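Possible race condition, two jobs.
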Amino acid sequence: MDNFTCKKMYTYTVNLKDCYDNVAPYGVLNIFQDVASKHVEEYGYGFLDLYKLGYLWILVRTKYEVKKSPKPNEEMLIAETWQSEQGRADFTRDYVIYSKDGEVLIIGTSKWCLIDVNTRRVAPTKVIGTNIVNNEKRNFSEPFKKLEFENITSGDSYLEKVTFSKVDHNGHMNNAYYAEFIVNALRLKSNEVIKNFEIDYLKEVLIDDEILIRSIRNNKEILVEGYNNINNIVLFKAKIELF
């Protein structure tokens, strides 16, 4: 086994694309999540293994940059991932999505943490040791920090409800569906193609929660926030840059 990286091939089907045949944010996040899961499973830290220890993987934030859009008729994508850092409270993981010919299409990075199954509080990373080997290669040179922008009180708004099909085995809405909700809210036009996508997951979102999504645009930059429609707590923040 290659301890440093993990690769997996994906058929580039319609579920990874939007209605204009551009790669969809929820498609990218699904691939990132899937190949990351495969990598930790190789170390014995998959969902079931970790659950037996009393912990769950939780995605804190993620971002990606499209270097070159996959062709609409692209048959296959290859995703590669590696753990680039194990901090005291979180893990940094990087990703590359290639064409079948090896051309770099998308690069990304993410922050993961562990939470205690019973308390739902963040646990130190040392509880599972240091068995996942760090590959110090980084896709982005700048520090991967929280999104910092003022709460959106104006602009466009859109309401979504978390249905049963959106919930994963952790008992909350899967991270890729946040991106799906954002895409539904923005309704980008055919000439509006996403270059950069970044999202911070601030609070767990549960079944039947209603999410009010607010967005504001400044030329090619779009800021997005998701609020709990009952108590007005901010659930996530996102920033999007168009080509």
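Job #2 (started ~2 s after job #1):
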Amino acid sequence: MAEDHELSCGDCRQLNCYRHDKSYPKFCLTEALDPSLRAEMLETYRGDELDGRMARAAAEIEGTYYGKLTRVEETLVFARRIGAKKIGIATCIGMIEESRTFARFLQMGGMDTYVVLCKVGSIDKLEIGIPDEIKVKPGLDESCCNPILQALLLNERKTDLNVAVGLCVGHDSLFIRHSEAPVTVLVAKDRVLAHNPVAALYTSHSYCRRIFDKERVDGLV
């Protein structure tokens, strides 16, 4: 841990902010919160604007369907509760079949869908300065992912909610940054762990203990 590490929620073992059945640590963010900021959050979450509707919809879904619905189903319920009608799907090319199935499910639930593939625009990686030798398959045409264009095309369609399906680390950041509609994630890409990234944390003491090999971590650039 860095010497100048600033204590935060990750260092707290009390988690008193949830049930109020313990005590707050001295560095607690909740305790240090400016009362005016808390009041501002309350006003936002109680309001009739999109942020308030989304906050209440998410909380209602958690309480009503806790452990009962899959994330696929929860996404439809969330869309309905915030009044969304048109759902944009920004998909990885490797998950196009999953996205087609997901779109079919949403359509069955009364939603209009519009799917945009990550390779839209078909810009070769060489054109953005990526050397041929670090393509996945050097010597072949290989289009880069185009998350900004995915967002812009969905913006043009005036989608009410966008869903990211398997976008790469970083590409998902760009998509969210440029999307005008709210974004939720259906699939977080992890090619090694069958799109279950948290498995690396669950098995950090066994199969994935390499994630705490400092020499290896220092070499990841």
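The CA atoms of residues 9 and 87 lie 34 Å apart.
Logs attached separately.
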